[in-house]
Amino acid sequence: MNVFISRPLLLVFLFLGYNTCQSQIPTYNPFFFGDKHVETKVPTVDLTAIGRYHFDQSWNAGNIHLKNGDSLIAYYMRYDLIRNQLEVILGNNIKAINGSFIESFEWFSVDRLRPEVFISKQSIQFENSGDVTGFLQLLEEGVVRLLKCKRMIAPKAATSPTLVNDTDSDIQAIEEFFLVLDGKAIEISGGKKKNLEIFNSKPLTKFVKQSNLRFNNESDLKKIVEYYNSGQMDQSQG
């Protein structure tokens, strides 16, 4: 895999035009699967330049699930946080698929050596979505889901810090976490007491305090939600 990852860096960085067109793309990446007759029709964008701010700077191989029900299997991609689009290697070119056409995507991270799943904000009901846009990473699945939103802000901008483009300087990445309970997403705050009230669980409160877990730490958050979703809760109540 690592041998192929450097390939996009050798491609032309500037592309002619910024036009959206309907493209017939092989459902299965021919690089991995050889010639396949199945094709997916999806609008793609010819880039004038690749983006500067991505969820992950590495090119990761994975699958893209479109809102029309089709999927693109085993393509290398990067998620552009500013433009809300996936940059995808298609043959010898890099094109973009706008997030409005995508339901979800997943890739295997070559840096963290694990699969990672991303779902559209549109598929989630937020209690207060704030400035959340695009896609959120699904960190834990179960009765309670844990989501991470990563977005870019320009803190010193004269206008709203949410109005960011990839020519801005002094841009910072921030991460926000959400719990999804009963179909609603609630942002996790810094206060331990307030977050524990969301769960309303004495066994979980005891587990968090005994384990000295924090709600502003991603690893700890995953342990908290994993514990809540496990059968250990019922055992401790019994």
Report what the structure shows.
It is a single chain. The protein is α+β, with helices and mostly antiparallel strands and 238 residues long. It contains six helices and 13 strands. It has helices at 2-5, 30-33, 192-199, 202-211, 218-229, 232-237, and strands at 20-26, 39-46, 60-66, 71-80, 85-90, 93-98, 102-109, 114-120, 125-126, 135-140, 145-153, 172-181, 184-187. Strands 1-2-6-5-4-3-7-8-10-11-12-13-9 form a 13-stranded mixed β-sheet. A hairpin with a 2-residue loop joins strand 5 (85-90) and strand 6. The relative contact order is 0.11.
Terminal-residue CA separation: 48 Å
Proportion in β-strands: 35-45%
3D shape: elongated
Number of strands: 13
Tally of alpha and pi helices: 6
Which spans of ≥5 residues are poorly predicted at pLDDT below 50?
Answer: 1-18, 158-163
Q: What helical percentage do the residues reach?
A: 10-25%
Element order: H for helix, E for strand: HEHEEEEEEEEEEEEHHHH
Mean pLDDT: 84
Summarize it.
This protein is of the alpha+beta class.
Fold topology:
Elements: H1 2-5, E1 20-26, H2 30-33, E2 39-46, E3 60-66, E4 71-80, E5 85-90, E6 93-98, E7 102-109, E8 114-120, E9 125-126, E10 135-140, E11 145-153, E12 172-181, E13 184-187, H3 192-199, H4 202-211, H5 218-229, H6 232-237
Parallel strand pairs: 9-13
Antiparallel strand pairs: 1-2, 2-6, 3-4, 3-7, 4-5, 5-6, 7-8, 8-10, 10-11, 11-12, 12-13
